[in-house]
Write a structure and sequence with these properties.
nine-stranded mixed sheet; 13 helices; 12 strands; Rossmann fold; three-stranded antiparallel sheet; globular
């Protein structure tokens, strides 16, 4: 099954590369007995185990759906893949609901694809009581896990532990194995952008980050936390938002600075989703970053499938002129049509290029535009076909079709 919690970091460092790196001593070798406890002073105060919130349930549904889509794709082509939970928590909630570590483990264990590759799970938790509770929960599920699963519980902060791992990989001149890294803090003191940047410099890594906007906005500009914010954003550009008196403009500025930082690291595809609370105010943003268009497509599919509780709602918030509420009665096809025409009016475009545009530059899916938008437009004479396969039926758009928008 792998190593126990006491040697968690040492074992994690050995299995984080595509090839097993050399074992060596570290001052963090016995991370199960030490490390940093307590809470982020700027975060919500919670007990060791607490009641789950509705918005957390929605977030976990997104995580589970994406993990289930990601796992068979990555294990098909790689001998080892990693799942890293940077703020693992106690493993379960007060009502018995599974936390993110159990969601990841059970989803992989029960997956119909039965992955044969080595799947390495690393759960990092800095609070000692929560860590001990997590270890107890993990020990209970261990006997049910396949032999190709390795599970490591690490006591410490996400930043410290990931920095140790990344430093070790750099020393080996290696790359982080294909990884899904879930960064879901209560606050923001231990999520410096420099660590996120180093993770995403590995081409087969993906991140899902909870950006705690409500707390970040509340303490923005506090004189005691200027350096913390510089580290969080990886720049001092966030200070530009201090002069914004309009709440909507300030929210957009803060969001866009973090988004642009992700894009500036070379992350090819970045999307963000806004979580609104019951007061219709922004609670947090979920940022997803990937180097792979297929990864982006699978994340968007996960987002569209979430059934909201009614108390919270998501909106795609990535671009200022394309903000769109998700989970309405049906997708806003008229909005997507306007996006397509805004980009391609007066031009000819292949169906492949149009599909890539919908996937990478809009909140929509590949299933949202051919039947719902292109077919009616062709019937009404609002587009023409510049090139296509012989025998094409009206309102169908097979590969190789070139469309002309007037």
């Amino acid at each position: 099954m792998g190593d126990d919690a006491v040697s968690g970091l040492s074992a994690f460092r050995q299995v984080s590369c595509d090839n097993v790196i050399s074992s060596y001593k570290s001052r963090f070798q016995s991370v199960g007995c030490g490390g940093v406890g307590g809470k982020n002073a700027l975060a919500k105060k919670l007990e060791t185990v607490w009641q789950i919130d509705p918005h957390t349930q929605s977030k976990h549904t997104i995580l589970r759906r994406y993990w289930e889509a990601w796992l068979p794709i990555m294990t098909k082509y790689n001998q080892r893949v990693l799942y890293i939970d940077g703020f693992a928590g106690p493993g379960k909630y007060a009502g018995g609901e599974d936390g993110s570590p159990l969601i990841a483990l059970k989803s992989a264990r029960d997956h119909h694809a039965r992955p044969k590759s080595e799947v390495v799970f690393t759960f990092i938790e800095k609070d000692k009581k929560r860590f001990d509770h997590l270890v107890e929960i993990i020990e209970q599920i261990k006997p049910t896990l396949p032999k190709n699963f390795r599970v490591h519980c690490v006591h410490g902060t996400f930043d410290d532990q990931m920095t140790e791992v990344l430093n070790g990989i750099d020393e080996q001149r290696a790359k982080l194995a294909p990884s899904l890294v879930f960064i879901d803090p209560f606050g923001f003191s231990h999520t410096p952008f420099g660590t996120v940047r180093r993770i995403m410099q590995n081409p087969r890594c993906e991140i899902l980050v909870t950006f705690m906007y409500e707390e970040i906005n509340r303490f923005l500009g506090h004189p005691d936390h200027l350096d913390t914010y510089d580290r969080l954003f990886g720049t001092d550009r966030w200070r530009e938002a201090l002069a914004a008196s309009d709440p909507d403009r300030r929210r957009r500025m803060i969001h866009d600075i973090y988004r642009d930082q992700l894009r500036g690291t070379g992350v090819e595809y970045v999307r963000s989703f806004e979580m609104l609370n019951q007061g219709n105010r922004t609670d947090y943003f979920l940022f997803f970053g990937t180097h792979n268009l297929l990864g982006l497509e699978k994340m968007k599919e996960a987002m569209w499938k979430v059934d909201p509780s009614g108390t919270f709602q998501f909106s795609d918030f990535t671009d200022a002129n394309r903000t769109m509420k998700l989970f309405g009665d049906e997708p806003d096809f008229e909005g997507l049509k306007n996006m397509i025409l805004g980009r391609f009016s007066g031009t000819s475009v292949s169906i492949e290029e149009l599909t890539n545009f919908v996937l990478s530059d809009t909140p929509f899916l590949r299933t949202h535009f051919k039947t719902q938008i292109l077919r009616p437009m062709e019937v009404r004479g609002e587009l023409s076909i510049a090139h296509t396969k012989e025998g094409r039926r009206l309102g169908t758009f097979p590969d190789g079709t070139v469309i002309r928008f007037p």
